[in-house]
Amino acid sequence: MKWRTIFSSKTMGDDEEVKVFGMWASPYSRRVELALKLKGIPYEYIEEDLSNKSALLIKHNPVHQKIPVLVHNGKSIPESLVILEYIDETWRNNPILLSQDPYDRAMARFWAKFIDEKILSTARKVSFTTGKEQEHAIEEVTEQLKLLENEVKGKAYFGGEGIGYVDIVANFLVFWFGNLQEALGINIFSQHKFPFIFEWIQKQLKIDMVDECRIPKDKHLTYIQTRLAAFKSASK
């Protein structure tokens, strides 16, 4: 399935071509789209069936054969965190996603890596484990979220007063994570437990481009439940 999303912008020449190979339910894919929307960059979005990957996806990401992939004027850039930096360095209009200060840039990369390698990784463990193993994963992701809560405490956004790199990486908390825990029937993430993250979420929801990247809730719940049913069936 393929569709095209175009935004009016003065940041690109008419001869520039930007494509995103993604998957609608992927937080990694959504973050790339969000960065492009925030920058006002027109792009073509190509939806991938991950059970039957296209020849174009494999061509543009032969190493990992994964989404997302950004293709800019025929040049392919894989891996969402790498793509976000590429977008910021290529289109220097606001919002600037990464600070020019070396320390601030390093810490932004640290927290982005923490989110991907710890929080999202552990969230997958919560989804596809049972019993004691799942209980341990729930405890683990709760502690990880507490660290993120402390990082955003007292700030409008993770990078300061405006949306930036870490905010885009953490955007899965705005829609994706709530849908996941609803489908699982668990309550890890709530306003009572994480008031500062929820305050940050409210600021995100006021940004039109964030709402444009909203994952359709009913469709997402059905998708998660289908995957969970397949996991349980395979585990028997």
From TrEMBL:
<dbReference type="InterPro" id="IPR004046">
    <property type="entry name" value="GST_C"/>
</dbReference>
<keyword id="KW-0216">Detoxification</keyword>
<feature type="domain" description="GST C-terminal">
    <location>
        <begin position="101"/>
        <end position="228"/>
    </location>
</feature>
<dbReference type="InterPro" id="IPR045074">
    <property type="entry name" value="GST_C_Tau"/>
</dbReference>
<dbReference type="InterPro" id="IPR045073">
    <property type="entry name" value="Omega/Tau-like"/>
</dbReference>
<dbReference type="InterPro" id="IPR040079">
    <property type="entry name" value="Glutathione_S-Trfase"/>
</dbReference>
<dbReference type="Pfam" id="PF00043">
    <property type="entry name" value="GST_C"/>
</dbReference>
<dbReference type="InterPro" id="IPR036282">
    <property type="entry name" value="Glutathione-S-Trfase_C_sf"/>
</dbReference>
<protein>
    <recommendedName>
        <fullName>glutathione transferase</fullName>
        <ecNumber>2.5.1.18</ecNumber>
    </recommendedName>
</protein>
<dbReference type="GO" id="GO:0004364">
    <property type="term" value="F:glutathione transferase activity"/>
</dbReference>
<dbReference type="GO" id="GO:0005829">
    <property type="term" value="C:cytosol"/>
</dbReference>
<dbReference type="InterPro" id="IPR010987">
    <property type="entry name" value="Glutathione-S-Trfase_C-like"/>
</dbReference>
<dbReference type="GO" id="GO:0006749">
    <property type="term" value="P:glutathione metabolic process"/>
</dbReference>
<dbReference type="GO" id="GO:0009407">
    <property type="term" value="P:toxin catabolic process"/>
</dbReference>
<dbReference type="InterPro" id="IPR004045">
    <property type="entry name" value="Glutathione_S-Trfase_N"/>
</dbReference>
<dbReference type="InterPro" id="IPR036249">
    <property type="entry name" value="Thioredoxin-like_sf"/>
</dbReference>
<comment type="similarity">
    <text>Belongs to the GST superfamily. Tau family.</text>
</comment>
<dbReference type="Pfam" id="PF02798">
    <property type="entry name" value="GST_N"/>
</dbReference>
<keyword id="KW-0808">Transferase</keyword>
<feature type="domain" description="GST N-terminal">
    <location>
        <begin position="16"/>
        <end position="95"/>
    </location>
</feature>
